[in-house]
Amino acid sequence: MDFWVEIVTLLIPGFNSSRDELSRLTAFVASVSPDIPWHVTAFHGDYKMTDPENTTAEMLLEAADIGRANGLRHVYAAISPVASAISKTRAARRAARS
Q1: How many beta carbons lie within 10 A of that of residue 8, not counting itself?
Q2: How far apart are CA 68 and CA 65, in angstroms?
Q3: How many whole angstroms separate alpha carbon 31 and alpha carbon 87?
Q4: Rounded CA gap, 72 and 63, in Å?
Q5: From its phi and psi, is residue 14 left (phi > 0), alpha (psi between -120 and 50) or beta?
Q6: CA–CA separation, 53 vs 13, rounded Å?
Q7: What's the pLDDT tens digit per position in 33-57?
Q8: Is 55:43 a contact under the CB 8 Å cutoff?
Q9: Which end of the chain is more exposed for a tag (fewer CB within 10 A), N or C?
Q10: CA 35 to CA 12: how far, in whole Å?
Q11: Can you give the pTM of this predicted structure?
């Protein structure tokens, strides 16, 4: 039986956004399979949970970098078009260094 798995993490500043937690999470996922897609999405204060700050594009990009550094091959940061351009620039720089 074939199946497909993807993981989505809602990045909440001060709750699950520490470098250590993201590193442990992505290392575990990569140990299961480095080909599992990982999506990092932004939190924004709404409804009943309004205390934490909103997730910034920079936080998402840093989380994505941590995932890649731990061996994940398919990392997606759900960010605005401007931040997406920054992400593509970073990816091009990484590719040029390889």
Answers
A1: 11
A2: 5
A3: 25
A4: 12
A5: left
A6: 6
A7: 999 999 999 988 888 888 889 899 8
A8: yes
A9: N
A10: 24
A11: 0.78
